[in-house]
Design brief:
It is built from five helices and eight strands, in the order βαββββαβββααα. By secondary structure, the chain is of the alpha+beta class. It has an eight-stranded antiparallel sheet with strand order 1-8-7-6-2-3-4-5. The chain starts with a strand and ends in a 5-residue tail after the last helix.
Length: about 160
């Protein structure tokens, strides 16, 4: 089992980090257990469990993608980067409706690693247990709710 810690950062911080070239994700949520995405040039269908983990992933045709996309209740567009000094760390920079959110995700292998993890100085607030932590939860927020949640974490001091 993998564990993930999540933090928020600013655009100013992102611009100073050594990161990979971005991979664009376009995600469309059909319902809580099904999403489709365009990841770079690859089209995929993902089935999710209650914990929001992918339990089945398959490539799909452009035709199937376009048909499923019509029934989506929301869309999330983001660019994903790897933090080059530590590939356990990825950074998601959101676009359009979720502009302003930049989420850092740190993948850890054990509960002990989670307990002992010391975040980098450039990582700001821990959002692991917030509505900003998962795209599925984010996709259910109205624009007003999203702005309120983002503001709440953006104005808080580093922990």
């Amino acid at each position: 089992m993998r564990y993930t810690k999540r933090y928020i950062i600013t655009k100013e911080i992102l611009d100073t980090l050594p990161i990979s070239e971005p991979v664009r994700y376009e995600r469309y949520y059909i319902h809580d257990r099904l999403r489709i995405q365009k990841k770079g040039n690859v089209l995929e269908r993902e089935r999710l469990d209650d914990a929001n983990s992918v339990i089945e992933k398959s490539e799909i045709s452009l035709e199937e993608f376009e048909i499923l996309k019509i029934g989506a209740y929301n869309q999330i567009i983001r660019d994903s980067y790897l933090h080059l000094p530590d590939i356990r760390v990825s950074i998601k920079e959101y676009r359009e409706k979720y502009l302003g959110l930049i989420r850092v995700e740190v993948k850890l292998d054990t509960e002990e690693e989670v307990r002992n993890y010391q975040k980098e100085n450039w990582m700001l607030m821990d959002i692991t247990n917030s509505l900003l932590a998962f795209d599925k939860d984010l996709s259910k927020l109205s624009s007003l709710e999203f702005q309120k949640e983002l503001k709440k974490y953006s104005r808080m001091k580093k922990d």
